[in-house]
């Protein structure tokens, strides 16, 4: 197992890594919607979903993979009433990258770090 680390995604805010490379499988930690350049988080939930996905993509790209290698995502939302908005941003992300939609779970949580509205983790397969 090797740590995956990139400046293209925000640094971990706790005792964990941005992602791990297991050879054929790369797994990211949950990605908050923090812009790695500005260190800020936008308020809009659609933009948060897109930023979280962009952060995850930066991590798997560091390991030599692309969006079309993503096979599973887990989406954590603070309010399931935002499901349709998050879905639209999620669909736009994968469509823009000409990538198939991966398997996905989406769950509502009571609270996310830094009071984010969205956090997304991905698994990507090299093969």
UniProtKB/TrEMBL annotation:
GO terms for cellular component: cytosol. It comes from the Bacteria. One of its GO terms (molecular function) is deaminase activity. It holds the Pfam family Ribonuc_L-PSP. Coiled coil: none annotated. NCBIfam families: Rid family detoxifying hydrolase (TIGR00004). PANTHER family: 2-IMINOBUTANOATE/2-IMINOPROPANOATE DEAMINASE RIDA, 2-IMINOBUTANOATE_2-IMINOPROPANOATE DEAMINASE. Belongs to the RutC family. This is Reactive intermediate/imine deaminase.
């Amino acid at each position: 197992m090797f740590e995956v680390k990139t400046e293209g995604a925000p640094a971990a805010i706790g005792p964990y890594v941005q992602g791990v490379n297991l050879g054929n499988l790369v797994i990211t930690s949950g990605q908050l919607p923090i812009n790695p350049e500005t260190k800020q988080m936008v308020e809009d939930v659609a933009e948060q979903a897109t930023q979280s996905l962009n952060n995850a993509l930066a991590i798997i790209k560091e390991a030599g993979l692309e969006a079309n290698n993503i096979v599973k995502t887990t989406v954590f939302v603070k309010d399931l009433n935002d499901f349709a908005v998050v879905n639209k941003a999620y669909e736009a992300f994968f469509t823009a990258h000409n990538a198939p939609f991966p398997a996905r779970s989406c769950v509502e949580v009571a609270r996310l770090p830094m009071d984010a509205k969205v956090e997304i983790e991905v698994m990507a397969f090299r093969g």
